[in-house]
């Protein structure tokens, strides 16, 4: 250990930019064993590991780095999977630069340990060697004479919060049924984050293992429509709501409802649906000719994406892969203030995306009912003395960008669903579900976690909620019967 003085930080190799923009395959390779061990050997094994404290899952990072350095893969896998339900996924998509790696003691001078890449390496290498997560046998509800079966939990939503809760409940031997309105499990891991950041097979692999462990998954089952609240309360001891925040924010300008202005999530979802189709039917003639995402034929078009976060980065990079003529990202603050991962911003620049900072949309210019240009106003930022908080000010300068299509990536809020009222569940003024410290909503048998209670946030915080809520749910189940 302590090799940081002689070994530089390295990242996993990236695919060549001219190749990778032709498809949706993952950009980053996984470390080879020698590289992972070498990089892990840089860790100082701090007495107070800030990386661990900053991780929302409080992963025991120095411990599994040490085992990676010593090439004890089994122990590294056990330690890494103890606190996280899918480390190989979060190793790929967490914004490590602002979480564990941002807090690494080596970050300022020598370069932080490549924690995310090593996290992914440990599980991927272990899976290759046939090591799989293990679960206890679930007490079978069919054995029970009581049809109410209060020991089972219903989870609504199969994103990171739902999958994490399912993992940790199953690990405690508690039966779980999951209800998902979509036709595939994974939430935004499947239908938001593009395949070039996270291969969908990696999400499905975890879902399959959960099903093997006893999870009963009901796809295309919408809570409040196909599934009634009362039925679930009758049948299950507790409900965990992990329904995410899927309502795309509006910009509030005239012309926003034009048919060529889209919400980011609609665009990304349709691209992924199309890609699933392509995968399932490679030999199909229509596929060979290149079927388009249902509504989005963007080839050779000039597209503007408004927003500067992870969702905007995913849109601009998907647009490049769809063969647009040009794609510009319009953000009203400066580069330093971009809220998403710096790594993905750099990748977007490499892939040919043009960034236009300090511009705030003011008006959609319409022609024949469609947007043909976006008028923007120049902004500037005034920093406080700590150079952290900045105040946005507007200048008297305006520009126009021609556009065939505009995508809005401005954030998300929780969709209001009637069934929450039926359950007596309180929400705050932003529409987020209110919970207490035990993740319990105003209905004591209904818990909630992830984006639906925090507002749109991160996969890792949703995952932490799912894990921590599962402990509280288990406590409640013990009091029932
Ligand atoms: C485009 C995009 C890119 C992102 N990139 C990153 C990233 O790189 N790194 C990162 O950490 N985070 C990223 N995020 C954020 C992250 O994906 C979310 O914070 C996380 O997925 C939230 O998890 P969740 O389980 O709370 O909700 P979701 O992942 O949204 O899952 C909610 C699930 O509930 C289902 N559902 C909703 N209502 C019902 C109902 N009534 N009945 C049944 N099912 C229902 C939905 O279909 C969905 O499957 C990104 C988000 C977006 C939109």
Task: Give a brief description.
The chain has 19 helices and 15 strands.
Explain what this protein looks like in three dimensions.
This protein is of the alpha/beta class. The protein folds into 3 domains: about 5-130, Alpha-helical ferredoxin (Fumarate Reductase Iron-sulfur Protein, Chain B, domain 2); about 145-245 and about 415-480, 3-Layer(bba) Sandwich (FAD/NAD(P)-binding domain), CATH 3.50.50.60; about 250-410, FAD/NAD(P)-binding domain (3-Layer(bba) Sandwich), CATH 3.50.50. Helices cover about 35% and strands about 15% of the residues. It has helices at about 15-20, 35-40, 50-55, 60-70, 75-85, 85-95, 100-105, 115-130, 160-170, 190, 200-210, 230-235, 265-280, 285-290, 310-320, 340-350, 420, 450-455, 460-480; strands spanning about 155, 175-180, 215-220, 240, 245-250, 260-265, 300-305, 325-330, 355, 360-365, 370-385, 390-400, 405-410, 410-415, 445-450. A 5-stranded parallel sheet has the order 3-2-1-4-15, covered by helices on one side. Strands 6-13-7-8-9 form a 5-stranded parallel sheet. A 3-stranded antiparallel sheet has the order 10-11-12, with no helix packed on it. Helix 4 (about 60-70) packs antiparallel against helix 5, helix 4 crosses helix 8 and helix 5 (about 75-85) crosses helix 8. It is globular. The chain starts with 16 loop residues before the first helix and ends with a helix. The model is unreliable at about 145-150 (pLDDT under 50). It binds flavin-adenine dinucleotide (FAD). Flavin-adenine dinucleotide binds near residues 162, 179, 182 and 460. Flavin-adenine dinucleotide (FAD) binds near residues 94 and 188.
């Amino acid at each position: 250990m302590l090799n940081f003085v002689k070994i530089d930080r390295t990242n996993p190799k990236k695919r060549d930019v001219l190749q990778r923009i032709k498809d949706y395959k993952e950009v980053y390779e996984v470390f080879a064993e020698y590289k992972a061990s070498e990089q892990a050997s840089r860790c100082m094994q701090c007495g107070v590991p800030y990386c661990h404290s900053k991780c929302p899952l409080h992963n025991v990072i120095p411990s599994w780095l040490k085992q990676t350095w010593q090439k004890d893969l089994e122990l590294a896998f056990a330690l890494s999977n103890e606190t996280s339900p899918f480390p190989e996924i979060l190793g790929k998509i967490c914004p490590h630069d602002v979480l564990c790696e941002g807090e690494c003691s080596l970050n300022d001078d020598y370069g932080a340990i490549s924690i995310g890449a090593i996290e992914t390496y440990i599980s991927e290498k272990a899976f290759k060697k046939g090591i799989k997560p293990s679960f206890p046998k679930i007490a079978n509800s069919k054995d029970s004479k009581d049809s109410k079966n209060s020991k089972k939990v219903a989870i609504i939503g199969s994103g990171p919060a739902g999958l994490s809760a399912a993992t940790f409940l199953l690990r405690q031997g508690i039966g779980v049924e999951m209800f998902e309105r979509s036709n595939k499990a994974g939430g935004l891991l499947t239908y938001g984050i593009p395949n070039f950041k996270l291969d969908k097979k990696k999400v499905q692999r975890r879902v399959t293992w959960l099903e093997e462990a006893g999870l009963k998954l009901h796809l295309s089952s919408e809570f409040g429509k196909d599934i009634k609240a009362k039925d679930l309360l009758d049948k299950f001891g507790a409900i965990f709501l992990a329904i995410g925040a899927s309502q795309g924010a509006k910009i509030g300008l005239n012309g926003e409802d034009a048919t060529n202005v889209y919400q980011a999530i609609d665009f990304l979802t349709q691209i992924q649906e199309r890609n699933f189709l392509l995968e399932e039917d490679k030999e199909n003639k229509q596929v060979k000719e290149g079927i388009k995402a249902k509504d989005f034929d963007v080839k050779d078009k000039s597209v503007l994406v408004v927003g500067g976060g992870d969702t905007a980065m995913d849109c601009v990079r998907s647009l490049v892969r769809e063969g647009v003529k040009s794609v510009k990202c319009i953000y009203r603050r400066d580069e330093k203030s971009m809220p998403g991962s710096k790594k993905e911003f750099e990748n977007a620049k490499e892939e040919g995306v043009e960034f236009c900072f300090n511009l705030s949309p003011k008006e959609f210019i319409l022609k024949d009912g469609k947007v043909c240009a976006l008028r923007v106003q120049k902004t500037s930022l005034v920093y406080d003395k700590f150079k952290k908080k900045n105040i946005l000010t507007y200048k008297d300068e305006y520009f126009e960008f021609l556009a065939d299509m505009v995508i809005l990536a401005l954030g998300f809020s929780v969709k209001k669903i009637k069934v929450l009222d039926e359950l007596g569940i309180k929400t705050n003024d932003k529409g987020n579900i209110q919970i207490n410290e035990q993740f319990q909503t105003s209905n004591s048998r209904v818990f909630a976690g992830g984006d639906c209670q925090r507002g749109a946030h991160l996969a890792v915080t949703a995952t932490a909620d799912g894990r921590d809520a599962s402990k509280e749910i288990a406590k409640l189940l013990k009091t029932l019967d």
